[in-house]
Design goal:
It is built from 8 helices and 2 strands. By secondary structure, it is mainly alpha-helical.
């Protein structure tokens, strides 16, 4: 019984699993749940011969993208508690991939930063992502990839602008 519930947790989602009126939102939900699944990512990493876990990969990815971060900020982006972040950071310190430094803006605070070998490991994480998207788009024409990339870039820009407006007013209609 546990086996079937485990496999249903990581099974690819279909847009039809989500009762949105918007097919676009249903498809995005399916994609986000698929690619954001720690269990699925962990299984793929293991089959790829990766020696570190999904949470360590995510930590390296965020630190390369955003630079040194406070443990509380890492906790927020990883959607986990401070004690769990401490464990992840300790594992990465043992591997020589991160170091703790003092936050120059607040000498009482700590920053987690990549070491030189941590930066190389993080670039490897991004290389895995590049291989993943290349496999997804394997049968696509160059023109389709370019068009989809342009539309996705536009969508992300508009979604970010919309999120900023929603943070101000919630989901109430815009004032006229």
């Amino acid at each position: 019984m546990a086996k079937s519930s485990e496999s249903s947790v990581i099974r690819p989602r279909r847009a039809s699993d989500f009762p949105y009126r918007s097919e676009l939102l249903a498809n995005l939900s399916a994609l986000i749940l698929l690619w954001d699944s720690p269990a699925l990512q962990g299984q793929i990493l293991a089959k790829s011969g990766e020696s570190i876990d999904q949470q360590s990969h995510a930590t390296l990815r965020h630190l390369l993208a955003w630079g040194p971060m406070r443990p509380s900020a890492l906790s927020e982006v990883l959607a986990t508690g401070a004690s769990h972040v401490s464990k992840i950071v300790r594992r990465l310190e043992v591997d020589g991939w991160v170091r703790r430094t003092t936050d120059p803006s607040d000498g009482r605070a700590t920053l987690i930063a990549l070491t030189e070998s941590g930066e190389a490991a993080a670039r490897g994480v991004y290389a895995l992502g590049d291989r993943m998207i290349a496999e997804v788009l394997e049968g696509w024409s160059e023109a389709d990839v370019e068009e989809y990339t342009a539309l996705t870039s536009r969508f992300v820009k508009d979604a970010i602008a919309s999120a900023e407006r929603m943070l101000e007013r919630g989901l109430l209609p815009a004032a006229e």
